């Protein structure tokens, strides 16, 4: 794969769209080429989408004629003018995603229930960024897998996907029977938008496009039979959280939400907002985790509460939700994430790894209780 391969493939796609489709209605949002597998995301209007519904089989054939392409993953997002939205539901601001989505034929598949064979979903959330939520989600998912649960891990952060790096995974998903196959990593089924686009690609999408992409990562992926799907949500209380609670309300009832926060007041203030969102959507709250709870000097072992200590425990008591445990701020946690091997697998006897495992056992018990 070379830059000239990508450039010539883009030229071929652009030529097809310009020659066959309505003028100026469709453009290339992102394109990657990895070991013969092309990943293409097209941005289009309603008129362009109508054309692609009938012509994307021909487009696929055109792309596969390129000597560097053997297979293709195709996704479609759309921007519709507000005037075209008359009579439709409000609140989208005139924009909506269109799911042509990763299908090898030119026909749209009928809508399916999200995750029909997944027993429970655990959403790992935070009110703000920078609190170590993704690291926590990955280590908890690995811990649940180590405990014997058939586990999946979904990176729901469309703007800043970190799962591929944290799992040390650089392969691309394949398509099977019209759906993406999750990548098996560390005994888990995993999926991220980061698997589909170049890591340098900025996802400059409006909220409805993010919701459409997240829906595809749930509906257009062959997750199979799972005991639990851990979802690493983006920080905040926005579109991704609302999409998840709406699409997977039944799965969340069997699982629930875990809130990650650091001990200081400013982080806890945002954590409260996360708790409020899940309460308003009637999502069970499994508990609050205090991450970066304290720091131990690797030389003298002196403990320092860099961000304070115990704030999350007090907040959990004030909100009347369970407190799940403390995770220290340690170099080993950061190194394991950067190296692509979660700490619970890299050093299972490490005190922080044991802390993750203890929380995972608590969550596993809660999943068992919900079945009773």
From TrEMBL:
Entry superkingdom: Bacteria
UniProt xrefs under InterPro entries: Mrp-like_CS (IPR000808), Mrp/NBP35_ATP-bd (IPR019591), NUBPL-like (IPR044304), P-loop_NTPase (IPR027417), YlxH/NBP35 (IPR033756)
PROSITE patterns: MRP
Keywords: ATP-binding, Hydrolase, Iron, Iron-sulfur, Metal-binding, Nucleotide-binding
Molecular function GO labels: ATP binding
Positions of region (Disordered): 81-112
Positions of ATP binding: 127-134
Pfam families: ParA
Keyword Iron-sulfur: yes
Gene3D superfamilies tied to this protein: P-loop containing nucleotide triphosphate hydrolases
Functional summary from the UniProt entry: Binds and transfers iron-sulfur (Fe-S) clusters to target apoproteins. Can hydrolyze ATP.
Protein family: Belongs to the Mrp/NBP35 ATP-binding proteins family.
HAMAP family given in the database record: Mrp_NBP35
Subunit details: Homodimer.
Xref: PANTHER family: IRON-SULFUR PROTEIN NUBPL
Name listed for the protein in its UniProt record: Iron-sulfur cluster carrier protein
Source species of the chain: Bombella pluederhausensis
